[in-house]
């Protein structure tokens, strides 16, 4: 029931906007009841927060998993970028509503979302420093500008990505990995056989 309510509200919010949709409409369209709605959500505001929290929690958890299960910075970065890109397919409706309606989040909920976004950014920035210390990432690249460039480039995917497009989300993730690692890695790291599979020219040869 919870997922049905969320799926229905995503469709309604995208079409009519957050303030253009009532709890009664969500209940009616989802074929549930007000009791069922308030069993899962205290309010429509909490529902909007949950929609936002779903995909932000997913990408944050995947980033922490990549960092904790891998040894080398380049491998961690590849996994982190890949999971980041894939979220735009897994949670496309959630992200559309996020960018459309995030201004309506109550301060408490907005703060919780901001905290997770900042935590993700910190993980990325720390990984950039780790890569430089390990001799894998170019030390001359400014950490803040590099990190914000990666976030900005991947985040913009929500503007143009379409599931029915020419490239699958997996193929798009591989392109992002190739672009970012080519700019990020030192000459020596690019020649490391462990990372050859991350570059598209090597995939074309296999």
Q: Would you give an account of this structure?
A:
The chain has 206 residues and is mainly alpha-helical. The protein has two domains: 1-41, Arc Repressor Mutant, subunit A; 43-204, Tetracycline Repressor, domain 2 (Orthogonal Bundle). The protein is built from twelve helices and no strands. Helix 4 (44-69) packs antiparallel against helix 5 (73-90) and helix 7 packs across helix 8. It is elongated, with a radius of gyration of 20 Å.
Keywords for this structure?
206 residues; single chain; Tetracycline Repressor, domain 2; 74% helix; 12 helices; mainly alpha
Rg, alpha carbons: 20 Å
Q: State the separation between the terminal residues, measured CA to CA.
A: 46 Å
Give the overall average pLDDT: 92
Number of distinct beta strands: 0
Query: Which stretches of 5+ consecutive residues score pLDDT under 50?
Result: none
Q: How many alpha or pi helices?
A: 12
Work out the strand percent.
under 5%
Largest sheet: none
Number of separate structural domains? 2
What string, H for helix and E for strand, traces the elements in order? HHHHHHHHHHHH
Protein name: TetR family transcriptional regulator
Pfam families: TetR_C_24, TetR_N
DNA-binding region: 22-41
GO molecular function, one term: DNA binding
